[in-house]
Amino acid sequence: MSGPRGLPTVLGMQPITFQQVRLGSGGPITDVRIEGGRVVEIGDLRPGSGDDVLHHPGATLMPGLVDGHVHSAQWAERRRRIDVQRAHSPAETVELIAAALRQRPAPVNGEVVMAHGFRDGLWSTPPHKDLLESALPGVQVAVVSQDLHAIWLSPALLSRIGRDHETGVLREQDCIDVNYELSRDVPPELVDRWVLEATAAAAARGITSIVDFEYADNRTDWLRRAEQGAVPLRVKASVWKPWLDETIERGLRTGDVLNGLIEVGPFKLVADGSLNTRTAYCHDPYPEAVAGEKHGLLLIDEEELVQLMTVASRNGLAPAVHAIGDHANTITLNAFERVGCTGRIEHAQLVRPEDAPRFARPGLITSVQPQHAMSDRDVADRHWPGRTATAFPYGSLLRAGATLEFGSDAPVSEPDPWHAIADAVHRTDNDRAPWHVEQAIPLNAALEAATAGRTTITVGDPADLVLLPDDPIHLSNPDLRTLPVLATLVAGRFTHRAED
């Protein structure tokens, strides 16, 4: 069932009655009626003559799933870039790019060749601009790291953008700036179409809401997209520092509705870097420092963090602070305690045991990405030796009283909440033994984190729902990952509906 540009048809607002479905995971069998975008009746119901009736005996109707951390434009563009994730060395990365280019017309008119997904945290030799030049002389090439914290540029591209760099591998803010500059080569209307297609794919996996942390003027971008086509999920459009003053001048606050399903999101700050790039800021030194930075990079000190969080929170914008290393998390927790505001900590990948209880402060969401725990387990073992018992510590955080919310960090991981749920519960995504199983969490807690705390369906709730053929509580690790989605609804409208 598709509409223009391949988007799912958003059906009309006629009442919908689900008959004989299980109400939530492990719940009773009942009927549910939706009207005006909300759940209006639950019980033994007789559908109205104009209702769209779905009869799926034994299927499970759950609250819709939330992806609490995506980068919308990079997620959409990544689907069209050369994929180099499987490369195990710089040379193999360059060969994958060269092989892909042999299958397409040669770049013309200053076209930039974009690749995505290099992971150098386990490589024995580092990437370098000369490798790109030797294999692809004169070609403008940009290779974005899988963690989005580094970008590897060819000499031709460095020359075009006016940068002189020893290795061609730019990290952190330099990476963000260059990536943002290159993104403007793509017409906005094309990016918008790609983003809407990507969100439609997310709806097909049961996602009804995202928090968008793209480094962009997200308010403007999402309002434009809403004018071009039906947005198939709710969007919390984050605010970055370059757009903070304008947001405050407009009087906009986190949670304000901008247009239908689009609302103002949190104010994004970045305290440190990432694990794979070895820029996550840690109390203990890395065994293999990058550029002499033994503890990683602190990108914003505690005093500046407190100052910016204070300005934002006083103006109704909840801070969302990226913190991956344990020292960055300590500093970020200090800042939340000093400012006294609500908000989010994004990632929390390495946490000292004495800091875990501090995540339980009221109004603080700990936004985590369980797929990263599986994709980065070997990198963590190498670069955080002796500390991985407190890496991706979902069990410790949950036991300490933290409020967890799951996300993918797309395009770092695919926006598939069922993989995130399985990774959090089983701590392995293949036939390897579970990694630090003591940090696994129960399935009901994982489902709660994947639905942003909406564990039940009650009369009056917004009809943001997902219909599943099976109850997740009974599924194995592999079956959770491949669980089909029969239907997804946002505000009572179908954003995905499998063929009957």
Please render the helix and strand layout as text.
Elements: E1 16-23, E2 29-35, E3 38-43, E4 52-55, E5 60-63, E6 65-70, H1 72-78, E7 82-83, H2 90-101, E8 113-118, H3 129-135, E9 141-145, E10 150-153, H4 155-160, E11 169-171, H5 172-183, H6 188-203, E12 207-212, H7 218-228, E13 234-239, H8 244-249, E14 257-259, E15 262-270, H9 302-314, E16 319-323, H10 326-339, E17 343-347, E18 364-368, H11 370-375, H12 377-383, H13 394-399, E19 403-406, H14 417-426, H15 443-450, E20 465-468, H16 477-481, E21 487-490, E22 493-497
Parallel strand pairs: 1-4, 1-5, 6-12, 7-8, 8-9, 12-13, 13-15, 15-16, 16-17, 17-18, 18-19
Antiparallel strand pairs: 1-2, 2-3, 5-20, 9-10, 10-11, 14-15, 20-21, 21-22
Helix pairs in contact: 1-6, 6-7, 9-10, 14-15
Organism: Kribbella steppae
InterPro entries: Amidohydro_3 (IPR013108), Metal-dep_hydrolase_composite (IPR011059), Metal_Hydrolase (IPR032466)
Domain Amidohydrolase: 58-495
Structure commentary:
Strand 14 (257-259) and strand 15 form a beta hairpin. The chain is an alpha/beta fold and 500 residues long. The chain has 3 domains: 1-63 and 457-500, Urease, subunit C, domain 1 (Roll); 67-72 and 189-456, Metal-dependent hydrolases (TIM Barrel, Alpha-Beta Barrel), CATH 3.20.20; 74-183, Roll (Diaminopimelate Epimerase, Chain A, domain 1). It has 16 helices and 22 strands. It is globular and about 70 Å long. Helix 9 (302-314) crosses helix 10 (326-339). The strands form 3 sheets. Strands 6, 12, 13, 14, 15, 16, 17, 18 and 19 form a 9-stranded mixed beta sheet that branches. Strands 1, 2, 3, 4, 5, 20, 21 and 22 form an 8-stranded mixed beta sheet that branches. The termini are close together. Residues 58-495 form the Amidohydrolase domain. InterPro entries: Amidohydro_3, Metal-dep_hydrolase_composite, Metal_Hydrolase. One of its GO terms (molecular function) is hydrolase activity, acting on carbon-nitrogen (but not peptide) bonds. This is Amidohydrolase 3 domain-containing protein. It holds the Pfam family Amidohydro_3.
